[in-house]
Every structure is written in C-alpha cells, then in structure tokens.
Amino acid sequence: MGSIGAISAAAVFVFLADKAQNYLIPILIAYATGTLLTAALYGLIPEAIEGAGGEPHGIMLFVLGSILFFFFLEKIIIWRNCPDESCDVHAAAGPIVLVGDAFHNLTDGIVIAAAFLTDFTIGIAVGFAILAHEIPQETGDIGILLNGGFSKRKSYIYNAVSSSTTIPSAIISYFILESIIIITPYILAISAASFLYIALSDLTPELHQRLGLKHSVRQLIFIIAGILTMLFIFSFAVHSH
C-alpha cells in the first residue's frame, strides 16, 4: 500500500481534471502533514526513548543529526525542487526523480519494519503516515516524468518499479533488525527525523503557496484531521500494553 498502492492512487490523481487536482492535492498534503508530525512526535520519538532505556538526550541527538543528514542529502541529490529552469539538475529531472524515489522508498521499508518490531499498532500508524504522504509526493513525481517527455504508461511503470524497493527493504530489514533489536530505537529516531523533515521542509512550504483565510482554515482542518487519525490509531497501542 505504501509503494505500489500510493503510485496507483497518484496515477488516478494525475489524470483527474486540473480543477479537481488543484482542490484535492492541497487537502492531501495538509492531511499528510498532520499524520507525519504526529507519528514522529507522539509515536516514534517516545517509543525510541523508551526502547533506549528512558534516556532522551542520546535519541534526540540522533534525531537532530538525522535532520541535518536529510538536509545535506537533499542538497546533494536535489531530486524534487530545482527553482532555476536552466540548472543542470533540471535537465535530468526524470531520472533523478526515479533514483531519489527508489532510495526514499527503500528507507520507508526500513522504517516500517522497525516500527512493527516495536509494536504492531506503531507499525500500522507508521505505515498509514507513509501512505498519506506518498500519494501527493508520487503525484508530483509522475507529473515531473510526464513533463520530461515520458508517456503515461512509462511514467506509471518506471515510478512503480522505483517505489517497489519498499517491499524487499521491509522484508530484509524485519529479519535483520529482529536479530539486532538493540539498534531499533535509533532506527526509530532516524525515522522520526525523516518524518519531521518531510513535513516541515517539503509539505509545509507547499501549503504556504495558497494564501487567504479560506485556504488557511481548510488546511488547518485537515492537518488536525491527520493528527486526530494518528492519535486514534496510537490509542490502540496504549490499550495493548
């Protein structure tokens, strides 16, 4: 669902009328922002601290360091945003999107495996948060491929292949992390950092593209909806302990 499912949903959005896309995608982005922030701050970081023996400083250093890592990674690869139409990266936007997406989804697989090893409900919540943010992201990626001259069929197939790295990554990580469970809290910390970085660096700036009271209120409502969804899912983890 987090890889091929998100691609299929994104393909539907890409082929909708422009008016429908312009209305629905900002809603999805707002909703995904709420789910990611809640998954990181309410779910992953507390679980990581608990798994590390209750000492928060080491985990928070991992979160801080990971945010810096994702910043420099995006600076180096620049697979999403190239503000200058003439920059070198823009000419190869399609292949860069595919390579970056493959790496990103491989990371998602590790995140999902670590979450399920911690708690089944945490795994469900993390998987849901990943699905929520993958749909608007993959919609943008397919749009970039179409703009780069790829056919609709090739845009879907190539993006599906690059996104399918989630599946083997999750399976392999599940068995590897199970044998070295001691590092799972630190994987959760890195996961939380990736969620925070995506929400605050990628998604929030998109929301600021639309000004006005109507858009702002709608965004806030769907951010809160994302938060409440995740709190509802996490409530089952609390009851299961």
Strand-helix topology:
Layout: H1 4-14, H2 18-51, H3 56-77, H4 88-91, H5 93-118, H6 120-147, H7 152-163, H8 166-179, H9 184-207, H10 213-240
Overview of this protein structure:
- This protein has 241 residues and is mainly α.
- The chain has one domain (4-16, 26-54, 65-80, 99-240).
- It is 84% helix and 0% strand.
- The chain has helices at 4-14, 18-51, 56-77, 88-91, 93-118, 120-147, 152-163, 166-179, 184-207, 213-240.
- Helix 2 runs antiparallel to helix 6 and helix 2 (18-51) runs parallel beside helix 10.
- Residues 88-92 have low confidence and may be disordered.
Number of strands: 0
Number of domains: 1
Number of helices: 10
User: Termini, distance in Å?
Assistant: 27 Å
**Average pLDDT score:** 81
Rg over alpha carbons: 18 Å
Helix amount, in percent?
over 70%
Proportion of strand residues: under 5%
Question: What can be said about this structure in brief?
Answer:
With 241 residues, the protein is mostly helical.
Give keywords:
241 residues; mainly alpha; globular
